[in-house]
Design goal:
Elements lengths: L11 H10 L11 H6 L6 H12 L5 H9 L7 H4 L6 H13 L6 H13 L3 H16 L6 H8 L14 E2 L7 E5 L4 H5 L2 H12 L2 E4 L9 H4 L4 H8 L12 E4 L2 H7 L2 H4 L6 H10 E3 H8 L11 E6 L2 H4 L6 H7 L5 E4 L14 H4 L1 H18 L3 E4 L2 H13 L6 E3 H10 L1
Parallel strand pairs: 2-3, 2-4, 4-5, 6-7, 6-8, 8-9
Antiparallel strand pairs: 1-3
Length: 416
Amino acid sequence: MRHQIKSDDLRAPEMAEAIEKCVHCGFCLAACPTYKLLGEEMDSPRGRIYLMKGVLEDRIEADEAQPFIDRCLGCMACVPACPSGVAYGDLLVSYRTLQEQSRQRPLMDGVARRLIIETLPYPRRFRLAMKSGKIGRMLQPFLPEAFASMLNMLPDKLPPPSPLPPILPAQGERRGKVALLSGCVQQALAPQINLAAARVLSANGVEVHIPAGQSCCGSILLHIGAESEARQIARRNFPLMPDDIDAIITTAAGCGSGMKDYELLFKGQTDLHKASDFSSKVKDFSAYLAGLGLREPRGFAAERAVAYQDACHLLHAQGLQSEPRSLLNQVPNLRLVDIPDAGICCGSAGTYNLDQPAIAEELGGQKAGAILAAGPDTVVSGNIGCITQIRKHLDLQGKNLPVMHIAELLWAAYQS
């Protein structure tokens, strides 16, 4: 299975530029979680670029390269580490999209992938799948690994659906007007996150609109190369957002990163302009609030030691490191503690837990250990995948620490 870069490939310029910029210096190796864990050159960004180049130039069989490409988390830790400015994310997404067009998967892997595509972006389907999964657990010893991995990720119970109000008015002087994306998986697993974000924004003088009929933003599919399905659901949100808003707020790091790549996703499409306009308004909750300026919350009665866990798609893909910390540092009686190797991925990475469960487990355990070494009494992050992964691995290590979204902690600080 081969696919040469041709002049009429829509992604040809981006892919060729990324490949040509790589000078194989090796700075990316120390930043790459899979290279640090596995110690294989081809499990590093430099090695994967070599493999992708070989496949696209018809020198390497795609089947030989595929296991190494599949093991890439897509965490983007290599991007800020690269002195040559290689756009590794654009290359990886484009390559996966091209290969998925002709890839022949084993039957059960193909079925598992289709279940992911048809379930995760749809909250109602996802909730139904969670309920059905309880039955599947009884059959787990007889199921293929791909299905067993899915069942292992199921929570013991889901919170009840929590519809969001269409509008939360600004409290006090109005300082802004935004639309809040409700999301997909997060809305099923932790609907309280969006509600907390809307309340915090409202308390800071922001009028929050939560348009009805929203769909998944498509990011979770974009990152696994399901490009056409990603576009199909993403474009449903375009006409729903008010024209006079300052920003489209997301509370999920992976979603924000994916939506900022809409120009790549919609390249060559008739609605590219709409996609670009939408993308230009997307801001992470913490970035918008830090830029606006936080109205100081009441804080906590007793000191709380809080570890902030950098979600990869906030830290590496969007370059947001100081913004969430600046918000937390303004909360009275909150003391931030640093996590060792904070920039290393926790192993969640979208669907990675399902696709590469062994590596995800190892990285999750390492992250939980690093958090415990920091000695916090509360863990905060900006991404539902990280929150779920960290909570699971802290529990496995016998530590029942609160793990929450930054919006939840800020709302608690306003309420205390």
